[in-house]
Prior knowledge:
This protein has one domain: Ribonuclease Z/Hydroxyacylglutathione hydrolase-like (Metallo-beta-lactamase, Chain A, 4-Layer Sandwich). Helix content is 27%, strand content 26%. The chain has helices spanning 33-42, 60-63, 66-73, 81-85, 146-152, 166-171, 176-183, 191-198, 219-229, and strands at residues 2-8, 15-20, 23-27, 52-54, 77-79, 95-97, 104-106, 109-115, 124-130, 133-138, 157-161, 206-210, 235-238, 248-249. Helix 8 (191-198) packs parallel to helix 9. The longest helix has 11 residues, at 219-229.
Amino acid sequence: MFAYASLGSGSKGNATLVRVGDELHLIDVGFPLKEIESRLAALGVSLDDLSRIWISHEHIDHVRGLGPVARRSKVPVHLTPGSFRGLKDQKLPWIDWVEPDAPLCFGALEVAPFTVPHDANQPCQYRFSFQGKAFSVLTDVGHITPHVASVTGHSNAILIEFNHDPTMLAEGPYPFHLQERIRNGMGHLCNVSAANFLSHANRVSQVSLGHLSESNNCSKMVRELAEQTVDHQCRVDVLSQAVPSAWAEIYA
């Protein structure tokens, strides 16, 4: 089985599960330990089932529960040295360093960390490839670089951020300095940029729309935009901050 599920996606916490055969990989740990345990249980798994943890960057909505979860599960934590330096809780029992753009192989599974433009110490995201199929996570990306497009553009499934609508951001409650941080090319993808990327992802059959701003976006709007962009046979889901998604199997 090759599948993924979101434990939650948004500014209050992010975590994604990837099931590869008998292994269970957790990308980011943006919720407290008890919340992680509860959301895992909702998907029929537990911390004891985890094989590895992968960290994209050190922002609190991606590492809030990392220390407790790592100490409880005692599985390898993969992250860049830069991300590690940014952690407040560095008591991780097992660390495997990640070098961006240097793929790692675990039997038939390849995990490719790739550099992304984001305002963190040494951020990266991940593409999982297994038996000729690929799944990529593409959140916390200020803009789509040619490198990001080349690594992820042929994925069969993509979890991509539709963070904000530019007009809603400009007219919304955020102060100007925060608006600038979001839209300056090192913050988060706007809806139009994400949709433009998807329009060139010609192999994708499953798209999950994540990291939606609660103040500067609309789930109905992003679903309609994505569905207008991708092939009509492509499944589109909008992820929730509050509850886990269903498992989505990855097909070629």
